[in-house]
Write the structure tokens for this entry.
Amino acid sequence: MNILIVDDEANILRTTSIALKSMGHTPFTAESSRRAEFILAEEKIDAMFLDVMLGNENGLDYLTKLQNRKEKIPVIVFTAHSSIESAVDSMKRGAYDYIQKPFIPDEIRQMLAKLARSISLERKVEDLQEQVADADATIRLESEEPTVQKTYDMAFKAANSEASILILGPSGTGKTVLARNVHQRSPRATEPFVTVHCPSLSKELLESELFGHLKGSFTGAVKDTWGKVAAAEGGTLFLDEIGELPMEIQPKLLRLLQDREYERLGENRVRKSNIRVIAATNRDLSSEVQAGTFREDLYYRLKVIAVEMPPLSQRPSDILPLAETYLKHFARREGRKKLNYNSTAAQALIDYSWPGNLREMRNVIERSVILSNGDEIDASDLPDDFIADENGGPRPGQLISLADLEEAHIRRILAKSESLEQAAEILGIDTATLYRKRKRLGLT
Ligand SMILES: Nc1ncnc2c1ncn2[C@@H]1O[C@H](COP(=O)(O)OP(=O)(O)OP(=O)(O)O)[C@@H](O)[C@H]1O
């Protein structure tokens, strides 16, 4: 790091410089704030040591001035031994920390190690904020389909209430994104949003993940823990894949929803909780209720408001607007702002069945932006599944019946094979069966 030491004592400047050099830093020295300003104008300084007794000057006043700079530099203040007031005052004025004089090099070393940790943490937070903003830039929470728009309207209206929300829909349709958005639009927005993935854990671990446990309450419980219900206090608990919640835990969740009470595993103390629950599932919970694998009372508690995210194939008029949102984002990221789809690519996007829904579309569009050349994305820049074959026939994954798909497949294999026997071998059926099918389909 480039470190500036500001002190009117030449001895301190000299010894601190030597110590900093031995730790691999580059020291700069200034005996006054004027000299310090001069150095700040010339060098990129990462951290500063500043004496509060700066000869005729007041180091604390200079500290205040430094805090008003556009580029903040962490300042560690040297205070006189026994001067608690100036230490407190310097912290109030925004110092990163203070060291009392006289000090030994090891105190400087420890202080800089602490500062390096803070700086690295700050960078990580900045990176994460950037990533979140990046993901947010592709989110489109409106729809050209009136039923889907109604779903969004209903969910966002419910955001203001305390009601539990159940989000239904296949994988990748945006249930998690919707749940987070409801939280962000709710009065709990500044409190935590905590996710629990119900299927990923054994019954005991899931219960402990939710409610916490006391040491020794089950094998492997080596210390006391607080669960995610406690972590979400004041905020929203998002239960992903609620359909997988084991029967044994269901009454405990019901009690949490109904009475706002829970107990940690292995503890007899009832705790109160203030959380809002949003749950999601790709299963048909009502049939699970019928089958007796999901409690009916819990089901009704969860679905005070129920919203359904349909598969992308049932939102045809959203395909191009969504693709456009992703395209803009990835094209900007790759520095190719003029990029567009040509009409064949746009048609291929519309014709595709999107079994992986929005998640798949995001990946497909990102890939096509990276693989395309020039200012146009062509159908050939899309994955193989998107390209209709030379016969223009149906493709696996398209919304067609098995019989139609079988017919198209048999036609293609017959066209490519040299004999009926070869075609039968490729198809994995005997020649007589293929012969009959061929006849029935009128392919002779
Ligand atoms: N409204 C939206 N606009 C644009 N992209 C979205 C939207 N919702 C979701 N996506 C994209 O789809 C991906 C999957 O979304 P999400 O995780 O919310 O789906 P999910 O239904 O919860 O899936 P799973 O059931 O597999 O957990 C997200 O990472 C995001 O890239």
Remarks:
- The mean pLDDT is 90.
- Residues 138-141, 169, 171-177, 240, 280, 282, 322, 358-359, 362 surround adenosine-5'-triphosphate (CB under 6 Å).
- Residues 402-440 form one domain.
- The first strand starts at residue 2 and ends at 6.
